[in-house]
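Sequence, C-alpha cells reproduced for absentees:
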Amino acid sequence: MSSINFKAISPAFGAIVDGFHVDDVQASDKPVLNDALDRFGVLVFPDLDLTESQQLELAKVFGEPSKRSRPAADRAERSPYADYMGLVTNVRKDGVPIGSLPDGEMWLHHDGCFIDEPYRATILYALEVTSVGGETRFVDMRAVFCSLPDDLISRIKHLRGTHSFDYRNIAERPTQATFNGLAKSATHPSVIKHPNSQRPALYLNPLCTVGLEGDGSNLSDNKRLLDLLFDAIDQSEATFSHRWAKGDLVIWDNWSTCHARNDFPAGETRMLRRNIIKGQKLDAYFK
C-alpha cells in the first residue's frame, strides 16, 4: 500500500510530498497525486535522483506530456526523450543558450496562457542550482480571486484576458497598445472555472496579460483594471517561494497558480529539466 502523504508548505496552498518512491509508483498513486495537485496547487518532491526516463514516467502520472519547440542550439540532442524534455538554464554553448528562459528575473505568469489550450502543469527537476537567488515564487490565484472586492469582480467577471509572450524579453510585458499580434497570443476568461475542482481562479498575470476584452471595455479602463488586479496578485498573502536544492522536483498547476523567478548570479550555473503537461480550453466561471 502506498505511504505517500503531504505536508503543507503554507496556510494557503502548496505541499511537500513525503513517502514517495519513484521506483514504486502504483496505480493507486495516480488519483492521489492528481487530487493533491488540484488541492494544493504546488507539489514539492525533495531529494530525488531521477533519470530522464524516470522523470518522463512521473510526468505521465499527471497527464500527457507535451512535445516542446526546441531552440536552434538544442536540436542536435541525442537523448530519446528530447522531444518531451527541455532545459531551463543559463548555460551557453558558443554564446548561444542550450535551453530556454536562461537569465535573471521573470515576472509572475501562468505557463501557456498565450496558447488556446493552456498547460495543465509544469514540472521542473533541479540538476544544478545557484548559491543564492533563483527561487520560484508561487501565488494561489484561487485565493487572489476570493480576496477581490465584489465591485471589482463585477467589473471583470464577463471579460476575457488577452495574453501574449515574447521569449526575447522575459523581464517586461507588452502593453495592449504595443503588442500588435506577437507570434503567440490567446484569450481566456478573466475568471476561470478549474476543469477538475470547478473552483474559480483569477486567470490574469503581470508578465503576459496585455489587455481585457468584452462589452464596454476600452484601453484606458483596461489599464486601470489591470493595475488594480496586478496589485492584488503582487500583494497577495497566498504566496510562498521555493528555494531550490539539487534533486528537487516541483510540479505546479498552471490553472490555479502563477509563478515568478527571482534573479540569481549570472556567473553561477542554474539548470533545471522541464516537462509540460498538456492542458485544455478553459471555461468561464461566470456564465
The first helix runs from residue 29 to 40.
